[in-house]
Amino acid sequence: xxxxxxxxGGRRRHGRVIGALCAVAASAVVVSGCGDGGExxxxxxxxTAPAQAVGQTTPGGLTRDQTERQALVTSAKIGxxxxxxxxxxxxxxxxxxxxxxxxxxxxxxxxxxxVAAADGTAHDVHVDxxxxxxxxxxxESDQDNEDxxxxxxxxxxVKITPQQAATTATDRKxxxxxxxxxxxxxxxxxxxxxDVVTKNDGYKTAFDIDAVxxxxxxxxxxxx
Length: 224
Description:
Elements: H1 2-26, E1 30-32, E2 41-43, H2 64-75, H3 80-90, E3 95-103, E4 109-116, E5 122-128, E6 134-139, H4 145-157, H5 162-172, E7 176-183, E8 191-197, E9 204-210, E10 216-222
Antiparallel strand pairs: 1-2, 3-4, 3-7, 4-5, 5-6, 7-8, 8-9, 9-10
């Protein structure tokens, strides 16, 4: 009888010791199967998720879009106005519809522009943003007579030049103009859209400027 009592107490003490060990181990790892004859299985705790997705920002703290805009502006040696003059000279008597700074397939900076002849025929003219040379010039093939007439009519209503619109934008936000474009006429009439990039942070500020009165209709900053 006494031997049974001692053995029973030993098992209880042994169980308490195992339980204590399991409690300590659980604070560091997940343990399953602790106990007499149990075989512990350990699994590392799941890592904490990072605050931001990998690759969202560069080591400098800028987003990829900001970094790309900065690099594009820095690599371009020809400004939008000089590139626009080159494109307009390629199509005598034409007017600017749109121009924007892009990367060519080769990775070099390039000004993609659209100009329109007096009859509204649109031409795509690409100008190398380093050398200033025309790399492509072609007539848009998807225009019909109605398209040409509408474009000519829209241009006839414009009173503010693209240069004036760009100056209005940079007077409000100092930076580099990377796009100027004439938007379709609506109840307010034709509008110049101007994008300005600030060099220190790569932010892009978009302006909508009334192409008749020169009034700033919208100013919006893209911080991505």
